[in-house]
Amino acid sequence: MNKMSIDIVSDIACPWCAIGYARLERAMEQLAEDYEFEVQWHAFELNPDSRGDGEPILPALARKYGRSEDELRATQNQMMAVATDLGLNFEKIQERLVCNTFDAHRLVKWAGEQGQQTALKQALFTAYFGKAENVSDHDVLIKCVESLGLDSAKAKAVLESDQYAAAVREDEAKYQQAGVTGVPAYIVNGKYLISGAQEPETLVQAFQEIGAESD
Predict the structure, then answer these.
(1) 144-203: per-residue pLDDT in tens?
(2) What rounded mean pLDDT belongs to the chain?
């Protein structure tokens, strides 16, 4: 069994990160007989500046990218269709508000120590895109933690302190210095960069080529 590590650089506020991981899961399933995958999540913030928190997403994106709200609504409708085909809940993607994800990233680091990093990330994606919940709100974060059966008192203690803040900042600095400017980004075996929410077939081919080079 060949081992392959995948470091995923992503943000909870990034819909393509949720879609990208669902596609990655399908690729990993196709290669499960030949490869054992180890996945680690790393922080990236699309909205590191907390100004704009609470603003409806469509006008915020229109201003950021210089496009009309109608254009962005059409793009988000396309994302909803893609997500639905992958079994993801994106029902309220257009109703969500801009929010800072720094505390959520800290909790993902903490959940990683309980072996629940991916599960918490997926719970956060569902909260934000499926329910339009504010993932900077500590009550929302605790609810996601509880949905996984994790210790809510310990999670609350993390949120009320600055635990894992340095680890999140280190992640952000490390991958920015490595040239990651957009997410999702996958670093395979510590050296091969795959950018964007690639289709499962594209990922399967890439992993096979990387595996052949590593043999």
Answers:
(1) 999 999 999 999 999 999 999 999 999 999 999 999 999 999 999 999 999 999 999 999
(2) 95
Q: What are phi and psi of 91, to 5 degrees?
A: -55, -35
Both tokens assigned to 196: 């964007």
- Residue 41 CA, chain-centre distance (Å), reads 8
Spatial CB neighbours of 28, under 8 Å, sequence gap ≥ 6: 35, 37
Say how far apart CA 17 and CA 183 lie, in whole Å. 7
146: nearest Cα among 120, 171, 126, 117: 120
Q: Residue 150, Cβ neighbours under 10 Å: how many?
A: 19
Task: Indicate the pTM of the whole model.
Answer: 0.95
Beta bridge partners of 40: 7
Tell me the C-alpha distance between 92 and 88, whole Å: 12
Q: Do 106 and 165 contact (CB within 8 A), yes or no?
A: yes
| Contact by Cβ (8 Å): 121, 108 | yes
87 sits in the region (left: phi over 0; alpha: psi -120 to 50; else beta) called left
Alpha-helical (H) ranges within the chain are 15-30, 57-65, 69-85, 102-112, 117-125, 138-147, 152-159, 165-177, 200-214
